[in-house]
Amino acid sequence: KSRRLVRKQRDIESSAALYPTDIPIAFEAGRGATLKDVDGNLYLDFFAGIGVLNVGHANPYVTEAATEQLETLPHSLDFPTEPRLELIETLDEIAPPGLRGNNRVNFGGPTGSDAVEATIKLAKYNTGNDGLIAFRGSFHGETSGAFSLTADTKYKKPYTPLLPEVQHARYPYPFREDRSDDELVELALEEVKELLGDRYGAMSNPAGVWVEPIQGEGGTVVPPNGFLQGLRDLCDDYDVPLIVDEVQTGMGRTGEWWGSNHYDVTPDIMPMAKALGSGLPLSGTMYSEELDTWEPGGHTGTFRGFNPAMRASVRSIEYIRHHDLLEHATKLGARIRDRLRELEATNPHVGDVRGKGLFIGVELVDEDGKPAPELLADVRTTCYENGVLVWAGGRDDNVVRLLPPLVMTEEQADTGISILIDAIETSTS
Ligand code: PMP
């Protein structure tokens, strides 16, 4: 049945949607950290819709509230509703410390790209500038503004030029560079400083600096301590907003509510999406109160606040708190990384194991230490044939990306990681 649906999709859907076809499965149902396909096969899900299902597939505590809301009032434009205001208040409780009690929230449409577009407009509007600074290896979305921030990929070229004033600085990538963490941080900050105009005036009109606290699509790249704080200091010195993109790292994924919490840094602007709606479409941007200069109607749209998704969002935050899922993610993530590091110690094709919480990357390399995308493709196929779904990413498509639901049990994780380890051993033997 799966094959039939995959073939049918190929026949009738846009070719742009056909990227997961190297995992030719059609899913029928999900529960917790498991998925079932249309043929009745069960899978352990280690990608959770790329970090969307943090409280698991079809979490009853979430769906109960969302369903009730769907039956009562799904859509109400930007008029106030209780679910809407309750979500803003709940987000305030878990906001990065410097934004707590000092923020505004703008809701977007369903995608992270929507939220990132809002951040671009907000930063430009507040500074009166149009220069955008982002990083190599970054991903911020695929609508025109967000795509401008996204680093060069083969998909971007046909659409350039996008926004004219975008520069990409170096992002510290410890595994790929033979330098100390301090040196990497210094080099990256130096480039940002040049762009901000100090030495060469490379960008005379910066509107902001956009950064992922840990790069996701770029290969789960964890920057050394000091990088985010250094950016915070530079943004303060040059009086431009720091925009920390929490679309993928947010909502508890890394064992803290937000990636920036790991570095004790408060962003000025923070786009959120993916797990925000717990599987229902919802994005939003939180920003500091002093940037709330938009006049009423200054940034609007028809679908900026889907009440069932807002109910789902509040419920998922409650669920994470009630079940101590941040702590669970921290412990389970460490356990998974420990096991994979044992493999790294004996298998030269495992170049690096990294991440925070349940945001984990395993970089695969060839015998010369170079990126090994074919190996990754092999491993991924062996995994799914044995009932484990992992994601792929990285600048060279050679990083196994693990983003299981935060509700995954230790037993499920152990089983899945054993299958992943076997797959790597088999593919490299
Ligand atoms: N920002 C980051 C950091 C992301 O990882 C993504 C999606 N992978 C986006 C923005 C864009 O989100 P969406 O795909 O929902 O538009």
UniProtKB/TrEMBL annotation:
| One term of GO molecular function | transaminase activity
InterPro entries, alphabetically? Aminotrans_3 (IPR005814), Aminotrans_3_PPA_site (IPR049704), Class-III_PLP-dep_AT (IPR050103), PyrdxlP-dep_Trfase (IPR015424), PyrdxlP-dep_Trfase_major (IPR015421), PyrdxlP-dep_Trfase_small (IPR015422)
A Pfam family matched in the record: Aminotran_3
Q: What keyword terms does UniProt attach to this protein?
A: Aminotransferase, Pyridoxal phosphate, Transferase
Q: Which cofactor does it need?
A: pyridoxal 5'-phosphate
Q: Which family does it belong to?
A: Belongs to the class-III pyridoxal-phosphate-dependent aminotransferase family.
**What protein name does the entry list?**
Aspartate aminotransferase family protein
List the source organism.
Natronoglomus mannanivorans
